[in-house]
Specification:
With 217 residues, this protein is of the alpha/beta class. The protein has seven helices and eight strands, in the order βαβαβαααβββααββ. The chain has a single domain, classed as Rossmann fold, CATH 3.40.50.1240. The strands form two sheets. The protein has a six-stranded mixed β-sheet. Strands 4-5 form a two-stranded antiparallel sheet. The longest helix is centred in the N-terminal third of the chain and has 16 residues. It starts with a strand and ends in a 5-residue tail after the last strand.
Length: 217
C-alpha cells in the first residue's frame, strides 16, 4: 500500500508577533516553536510506523526546514527533494497583511468559504485547477514503479512525505476523486505543524486521517 503523508510546516511567528498571511512571495524560516513542531512530526512518524521512504518539500525555507528536522527526529537520513508545485499560493494584495486587514478587504464570509470549501477569495492569485492537477499527477507518479523526479525505482509499499503550506495542502484530497465527502468529514485547513495521511490501494486513493496534531515535548 502506497502512503502519502502531507505535513504543513511549523510556525513562522512567535507568540508575541502579529501573524500575517505569508504566501509564495515571502520566504521566512521557522521560529523556535515551529522547529519543535517539526520535530514532533518526526516523532509521530517514528512512533506510528510511518517512516517515509522519500521526502519532498516546497522550495521555501519553512517547508524544507520542517522536513529536515522531522526526518532527523525520526532517525532517518533522506534527501529532501524541492518541488515548486508545493510552494504556497500567492495571496495577491493580501500578502503579508494581518488577518484583520484581510477580512476588512474581502469580508469574513470569503475567509470561511476558503477554509471550508477551498473557494478562492477575490484578488488572490490562485488557480485551483492547476493545483489539483499537480496533486493528481504527483499522486499518480507515486503509484508507478519509477519516480521521474528522483530517477529511482519504487515499490508499491513506499511512504512519501510532502511538507507544504496551508493553501496547497487543502487541495491534496482531490486525488480521492471525492473531495465533497472529505470536506464534510474534516476541516480542510491543515493546522500549522499538523499532518494528513492518504493511502492508495485497489486502484484508489483514500484519506486515512487529516489534521493530526503531533504532541510537542
Amino acid at each position: 500500500m502506497t502512503k502519502l503523508i502531507i505535513a504543513r510546516h511549523g510556525n513562522t511567528f512567535n507568540s508575541g508577533d502579529i501573524p500575517t498571511r505569508v504566501g509564495a512571495r515571502t520566504d521566512i524560516p521557522l521560529v523556535e516553536k515551529g522547529q519543535e513542531q517539526a520535530k514532533a512530526i518526526g516523532r509521530y512518524l517514528k512512533d506510528n510506523d510511518l517512516l517515509p521512504d522519500i521526502a519532498y518539500s516546497s522550495t521555501l525555507k519553512r517547508t524544507r526546514e520542517t522536513a529536515i528536522l522531522a526526518l532527523k527526529e525520526a532517525g532517518i537520513s533522506l534527501p529532501v527533494y524541492e518541488l515548486d508545485i508545493f510552494n504556497e499560493i500567492d495571496y495577491g494584495e493580501d500578502e503579508n497583511k494581518t488577518e484583520k486587514d484581510v477580512i476588512s478587504r474581502i469580508g469574513k464570509n470569503a475567509i470561511e468559504q476558503w477554509d471550508n470549501n477551498a473557494i478562492v477569495p477575490n484578488g488572490w492569485k490562485v488557480n485551483p485547477n492547476e493545483i489539483i492537477e499537480n496533486w493528481q499527477n504527483f499522486a499518480y507518479q507515486l503509484t508507478k514503479t519509477h519516480d521521474i523526479v528522483t530517477n529511482r525505482v519504487m515499490n508499491i509499499d513506499e511512504t512519501a512525505l510532502v511538507v507544504t503550506s496551508n493553501g496547497i495542502a487543502r487541495f491534496a484530497p482531490y486525488i480521492t476523486e471525492d473531495f465533497d465527502s472529505f470536506a464534510k468529514q474534516y476541516k480542510i485547513k491543515l493546522r500549522t505543524g499538523s499532518l494528513g495521511i492518504l493511502a492508495f490501494s485497489q486502484g484508489k486513493w483514500r484519506v486515512v486521517d487529516w489534521n493530526i496534531v503531533p504532541i510537542l515535548d
